[in-house]
Amino acid sequence: MSEITATQMVPSRSVVDRSARTRLAYLDGWRGLSIALVLIGHFFPIPGINLGVLGVEFFFVLSGRLMSEILFIERYPLKKFFKRRFSRIYPALLVFVVISMIALSGTFIAFKWKAALTALTFTYNYAGILVTRAGALDHIWSLCVEEHAYIILALISALLSSRNRVIPLLLTLALLAMANGAVSYWVFGLDYEATYWRTDVHIASILLSASICLLKAEGRLPAVLKGSYVALAAAAGAVLLFMDPVPTPIHYLLAVPLLALAVNALDFSTPIFSNLLSSWPMATLGLWSYSLYLWQQPFYKFVYEQGISPWPMLVGVFACALCSYYLVERPAREWLNRNW
């Protein structure tokens, strides 16, 4: 028997708290990196790669990891889970849609109540393809995919209690979604939006990350994927595979699995990478990321389609986003979580 006692085997509360804070910090930093990519891609585009699209994938794989931890590892009560999702997402979204509909009236990206309704019911990703689009709301497609994924993952967690059954199901669904995207784009010739805005295609990013998270929790992730540089190397490989010369379906067949691996391998990452993500600027950007993502879209449209200088528009993004975060998103979430 080992000489380690039970007391020694259990880390102190302070150690656990420090570990949790570090973990949250580098995951917030991953969010910060995600929104930074979106903002750079939209306001200061780099030739040869669409960083805006790449940033959305960074968000998706993080969501997959977090939802897997919450629903399949922690076994969070579903009623509480959906309340928390609502308090996190909906108040800020509602305020954004209403204010944008009023403020943008008469501009080239004005939209009416029908488009607003599809955004607020998380159907914009399909309505934008089949019915009507509104440039100021085009980014809402990604929120729709996430919300649909929450429902699907919650249903799976309610129906299947064994992780050994969940993992192959998630992997199978992810592979089917990836194949669906490749066939839609290559065989049927659908454009990017008609293919990759759809939940039945883009949910693959979330499901792959959720699967890898569960493999890690079960101790079934190969040792070679737990190296200290795996997260950095996988993320770098994904960036290279997202370059414009690479066919679009390859972005999602090869690059997204690398990103899903990267976000899950952060737990084993070299301190250089994890400390960078945990730094105050990155973690703070992560805290603001949802409000920044909501409010960047209309300003981006003015830059992209009207040729307005990006700097004042970016200042406007941060001004609106910080008001959203500190006056709507955070207080609404805290109040609802406390009283609902």
UniProtKB/TrEMBL annotation:
Is Disulfide bond tagged as a keyword? no
Q: Which Pfam families does this entry report, sorted A to Z?
A: Acyl_transf_3
GO CC annotations, alphabetized: membrane
Transmembrane region positions?
49-68, 89-111, 140-160, 167-188, 227-243, 249-266, 278-296, 308-328
Entry keyword set: Acyltransferase, Membrane, Transferase, Transmembrane, Transmembrane helix
Q: Which domain of life is it from?
A: Bacteria
Q: Which residues form the Acyltransferase domain?
A: 25-323
**GO terms (BP aspect):** polysaccharide biosynthetic process
Keyword check for Transferase, yes or no. yes
Any GO MF annotation of the entry = acyltransferase activity, transferring groups other than amino-acyl groups
PANTHER family hit by this protein: ACETYLTRANSFERASE, ACYL_TRANSF_3 DOMAIN-CONTAINING PROTEIN
Q: State the protein's name.
A: Acyltransferase
Q: Which organism is it from?
A: Mesorhizobium japonicum
